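Practice problem 4.
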């Protein structure tokens, strides 16, 4: 179990180039199993652990993968796809469930494991299965949590999502592109990663309309060709670095990103007194923070609400703001564990269910703290940047699940962060 060691007190300055989005790469790699020709993907964060895991799964399915250059991946689909996802790999990453939709559409059958919960919640898959069953798939539970999803043919249907689940929207979309007839997903998730997946599939010949809105229409086609795609910038990585700049009262230009994807974060940072400079249609944001941050209130929500994946990082920032801040986590039932770890560093945070009340500013002292999930890990690194002395964040591999080479890239901004 590796750790990150952070020396606090450095003001971040300089330029940070954002990578392609992990949460776009994972469903896209699953969707590549739908192609019956070669696929080339650009701006893919190959150094991220979860992406490496997905590549391992694709290899076990028979896909031939080659990376001719950094962040470029060539995928050759096999003549015959395996249809069983290895249990050991499924248990390591919930996102392997993304393979259910495309594989049942492409081969008529897939064997997966019901993914376990994780530190941020139970993470059920009922909406994924409701959608696949609506398209005509049969589900058969096998011993040991294994699940066989099968369908000789999928038939398009109207599907209502009780919650705008990102993964369920993506899984159903990937199954519907080869179904007979038209599928409509009502109350669909609207995240930018959904739009990116739809653009990738459209490039392969799929017919998808309305991605990015809460109603997505898919007209099934007989087959999908190969194609080429550049993955959308990672808005969560960009937001994490913006908060790192704010918590160190720094001055950072974040490039290779889409500012419009993070308006909720910009509004909250402006309420706290952070200066943000960006142009609509541009590919960068400059983040400048003075010595005095103001408290604010925030609540997470489905896009375009405040992203739950930036909630822990925002709570860390709120510990340095003058006044009483609140954060309500509406997406996951157990995603405030970082409050206890921040408390070990001197933060004053009360939590009750899905709400945190943060009293600031509190000077943060060095401590040894534990990353309970990848975004909590990132939040603790940010807190370490603002703390006096040396903070040890245990569980670096959690952070490496979602961020490629973060210590080196933060060090380029002046942070004293190293893997230990
Ligand atoms: C995606 O997870 C992201 N992961 C998560 O990012 C992100 O936090 C989440 O969307 C919300 O934005 C990837 O894209 C790989 P959901 P996903 O289905 O698809 C409930 C990170 O840090 N739900 O939108 O699993 C669920 O319990 C990760 O990068 C059901 O009830 O999220 C949760 O409360 C963490 N039934 C809520 O919906 C279902 O069938 C949101 O889940 C599915 C979900």
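Answer key:
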């Amino acid at each position: 179990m590796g750790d990150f060691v952070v020396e606090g007190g450095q003001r971040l300055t300089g330029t940070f180039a954002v990578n392609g989005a992990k949460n776009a790469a994972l469903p896209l790699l699953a969707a590549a199993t739908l192609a019956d020709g070669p696929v080339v993907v650009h701006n893919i964060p190959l150094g991220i652990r979860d992406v490496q895991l997905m590549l391992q799964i694709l290899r076990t399915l028979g896909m031939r993968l080659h990376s001719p250059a950094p962040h470029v991946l060539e995928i050759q689909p096999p003549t015959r796809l395996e249809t069983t996802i290895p249990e050991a790999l499924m248990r390591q990453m919930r996102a392997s469930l993304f393979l259910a939709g495309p594989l049942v559409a492409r081969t008529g059958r897939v064997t997966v494991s019901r993914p376990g919960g994780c530190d941020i919640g139970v993470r059920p898959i009922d909406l994924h299965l409701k959608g696949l069953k609506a398209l005509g798939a049969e589900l058969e539970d096998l011993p040991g949590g294994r699940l066989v999803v099968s369908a000789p043919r999928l038939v398009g249907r109207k599907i209502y999502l009780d919650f705008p689940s990102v993964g369920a929207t993506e899984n159903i979309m990937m199954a519907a592109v080869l179904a007979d007839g038209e599928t409509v997903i009502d109350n669909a998730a609207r995240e930018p990663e959904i739009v990116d997946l739809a653009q990738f599939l459209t490039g392969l010949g799929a017919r998808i309309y309305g991605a990015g809105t809460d109603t997505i229409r898919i007209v099934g086609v007989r087959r999908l060709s190969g194609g080429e795609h550049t993955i959308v910038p990672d808005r969560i990585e960009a937001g994490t670095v913006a908060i790192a700049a704010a918590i160190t009262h720094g001055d950072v230009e974040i490039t290779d990103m889409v500012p419009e994807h993070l308006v909720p974060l910009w509004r909250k940072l402006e309420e706290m007194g952070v200066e943000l400079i960006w142009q609509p249609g541009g590919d960068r944001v400059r983040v400048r923070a003075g010595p005095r941050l103001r408290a604010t209130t925030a609540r997470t929500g489905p896009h375009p609400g405040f992203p739950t994946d930036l909630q822990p990082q925002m709570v860390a920032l709120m510990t340095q703001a003058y006044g009483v801040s609140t954060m309500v986590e509406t997406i996951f039932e157990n995603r405030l564990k970082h409050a206890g770890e921040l408390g070990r560093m001197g933060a004053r945070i009360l939590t009750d269910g899905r709400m945190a009340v943060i009293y600031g500013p509190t000077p943060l002292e060095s401590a040894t703290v534990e990353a309970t999930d990848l975004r909590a890990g990132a939040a603790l690194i940010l807190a370490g940047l603002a703390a006096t002395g040396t903070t040890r964040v245990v569980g670096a591999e959690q952070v490496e699940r979602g961020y490629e080479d973060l210590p080196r890239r933060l060090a380029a901004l002046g942070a004293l962060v190293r893997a230990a």
